Amino acid sequence: MKSRLKFTPDTNSADYEYPGDMTDRDVLTIVSIRLRLVIGIILLVSLGFISRLPAQVYNVGDTVNNFSLPICSNGDGTWQLYNYYWKENGGQSHVIFLDIFATWCNPCQEAAPKTEEIYQKFKDRGLVVVGSGFDWGFPFSCEGWSNTFGLEYPILDDGEEEGPWRLFGKDTPTTVIIDHNMEVIYHEAGHNDAALRTVIDSALTAMNRNTGTGAENSLPEQVVLRPAHPNPFNSGTTLSFALTKPLHVSLDVYSHGGKLIKTLIAGEQSSGSYTVRWYGKNTNGVPVASGIYFVVLRSGQASLIRKVTLLK
Predict the structure, then answer these.
(1) Averaged pLDDT for residues 48-52
(2) What is the pTM for the complete model shown?
């Protein structure tokens, strides 16, 4: 039987009729082959996308193992995380800020200049900033990314199976802060500039106080912020600090995303020991969710930090 089937192309052109000497079976065979080709292409694209899905190996509170990636801009050779770990490099401590991005991502493009500003502000205190990018050519090359946004920190080619995107990626961009002991202290989708600056400042202050480097930005030796007890906690935890001279201080609780949860103390304090109880509630008295929080003691531009974990 000659074919009576018609095919209307997607281009809105006139109806196309298969040659009259083709049977319905011939037409169906052609259609079937085309459908299989389309399905095959979709599967290949899908598999390529799945291979780039993040594994999220690390979360806040985890210790990160060493990894390395090739530097594709603002440097040569291979970048290794543990080159900045004081136990592996002769005692030089650093805080690491990872900016994980895709070149086609508009929020990533908007975040890049802000990341450069953070790098310039904190690099002299021991902050290491590194960008880790993928999907080059859509539309930026690696060098093009650095040049377009005026970046001076190293950019890595995150094409490896165990690169930062696979280890940390939540969305594009993903921002990660690793403290001087290689512990993840911040891990969020997006670029929250205020939160990043708060956590970085606190982490650098804690690092400099513990290692004796960059002391000009740390709190005076007369200030002590003791570990919270109990920690982890359920209904409440006790926070204490000591001053050996009068100082204007604030004691605040932040989420691991950098959001202010509650101010516990603020104002001029005389010398002595202070104890305050935090019951896991925000400023409005509403219980907060389980998770990791940061207790930050500030005086002027410097701060000390303790991590607490709320379990329910």
Answers:
(1) 45
(2) 0.62
Q: CA triplet 229, 230, 233: central angle to 5 degrees?
A: 135
CATH classification of the domain holding 264: 2.60.40.4070
- For the cut 90, the answer to whether the pLDDT of residue 214 exceeds it is no
- Tell me how many domains the chain contains: 3
Q: In whole angstroms, how far apart are CA 131 and each of 81, 126, 204, 285?
A: 13, 17, 19, 39
Lowest pLDDT segment from 71-85, 107-121, 213-227, 266-280: 213-227
Write the CATH number for 114. 3.40.30.10
- Is 167 part of a structural domain of the chain? yes
Range of the domain at 20: 6-50
- 273 versus 252: the higher-pLDDT residue is 252
Residue 56 lies in a domain: no
